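My main concern about presentation is that the manuscript never shows what a single data entry looks like. The format is easy to grasp once an entry is in front of the reader. For illustration, here is how one protein appears when written out as sequence plus structure tokens:
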Amino acid sequence: MGIPLTMFNSGSEVKIKAINGGKDVCHRLHCLGLCCNTKVVVLNNQEGLTLRFNDSKVVMGFGIAHKILCEQV
């Protein structure tokens, strides 16, 4: 199915395959633009995850990032 986003190193480019979260988590991520088939670059995976996608940057905690399942692009 996919590997949790927290498992990818800085500089990795990944594609979101699924989100294993409840309705509120899925809604919040969707509002940010993070949904299935979105390509994301992990900029930093220390003290939270910093992501770049669609000309945006987002910082999130490891708890929510661990629910995002991805595959390497």
Notes: The CA atoms of residues 13 and 41 lie 4 Å apart. Residues 23-32 form the longest helix (10 residues).
